[in-house]
């Protein structure tokens, strides 16, 4: 983030001369800041502490609990009771690392599929008559506003054995026996691509729409075939959109819970679902927290890469 | 390009069929007479009747709307304040941390946000219920509101506010009389986004909620796990209809306001 700009400095000086408004500005800064510190940042430290605790049969279901009334001795006792046991457990039981690997795999395949489906859509939108474009963008965004849960649920009726897809395929004579799609990884791919397609299409459309048509004409005049022009001009120029779209699909897909739970089967391992089961069914809060900490560490790399790329893009645009 | 070429038109048609057909099928089959969801047995609105007679649904809907309105309103206020800070306030201590905290909740997996808030509420001895869900929703939706509003704030000139201040306005009245009217459409958009996010949320609400505060998505989820039912199709249709009508009306109203504002600006320049 670029911080020091001369204009900003001038403004802060003005503020210091106007004491009353300075207080106003401080309040403006403090309220949302404190809110996020308390309800967003602080909870992560609690998750981390929890991941070092032990499960207990009590309310709340973990030990040690934090008790300020015992003073310094309480803190020491708390510190001594924390250990890395849960993380050792995560490496010993192969359910966990299989979940991580399988989440990454499912998210990668879904992202690739979303790109393959999203790119032609974004390309066609960018090539559409200009008076149509804002309507097309609206049509892409609209499903995003309707409930995620409902959109995933809609696929249950389509993909199940006696569902619409099998019915249509059998009616067309493509298949004789109904296919088993629901409760498989295929259904999860379909669900993720369907739910996150707008996130892929919109950044792609944004770069494709801005692209200079003269470049394509020039390539054409110089003897490039349309396919070659597409590969050497369109694809490289739309790379920022491809990267942004892939991150926007990949990052939320890794931690997805609703889609693998409703569309996936018992052998669909995804970390969001494992965390949920650990927490709600096994009531093992410390292990669920350890799962969350590792998931966070896994995602921090793509999140930071994504932010770096966005900043670079903003600098180039500005 | 002035016209569609057939290849692009086909791609777009297929793309939109993929995006809209599942919802369309769900809507059509909510009017199905039969309990078997994929066999059409004639038109009926009886499932809508049973939705409105189901007290659990009505109670959950009422909880959801109250959580949505309260959390969206507070989130929009906090989000607008955050947007003003990011785009107007100069450097301040921990600015990078702050902008990180604005963007992070949008990419954070919901299971992590939900779990971490729950553990916070437990360690603070909060009784989980209506207010904890509301606080959780404020926290993630304020970030979306902040991004929507700050996109508008960076796109217009700071000189309008400076001119108002040069003409004797205090910072606060410059904001109320100049900035707020200009950003009003995006503040409204931020509210609408925050409201629909709250309306949709299942995962974070499941963690943050306690007995007595079951939201509609939580209720739908518990039913959906058992399987497809025409009652849920009817309920989903109602939700989709309400949200779509809301969003389309709002975006048309915003477009009209934008056109009107532009015309007034032109008149002001011409005069």
Describe the structure.
The complex is a heterodimer of chains A (318) and B (271). Chain A is mostly helical and 318 residues long. Chain A folds into two domains: 6-81, no CATH class; 85-317, MetI-like (MetI-like fold, Orthogonal Bundle), CATH 1.10.3720. Chain A contains 15 helices and two strands. Chain A has helices spanning 6-17, 19-51, 71-81, 85-92, 94-127, 130-145, 148-159, 164-172, 185-210, 213-221, 226-237, 239-254, 258-262, 271-281, 285-317, and strands at residues 54-55, 62-63. In chain A, strands 1-2 form a two-stranded antiparallel ribbon. Chain B has a domain at 53-225: MetI-like (MetI-like fold). Chain B is built from eleven helices and no strands. Chain B has helices spanning 6-29, 46-53, 55-87, 95-107, 110-123, 130-155, 159-166, 171-200, 203-208, 216-224, 230-270. In chain B, helix 3 runs parallel beside helix 6. Chains A and B meet through helix 1, helix 2, helix 5, helix 6 and helix 7 of A and helix 1, helix 3, helix 4, helix 5 and helix 6 of B.
Short synopsis of the structure:
The complex is a heterodimer of chains A (318) and B (271). Chain A is mainly alpha-helical and 318 residues long. Chain A has helices spanning 6-17, 19-51, 71-81, 85-92, 94-127, 130-145, 148-159, 164-172, 185-210, 213-221, 226-237, 239-254, 258-262, 271-281, 285-317; strands spanning 54-55, 62-63.
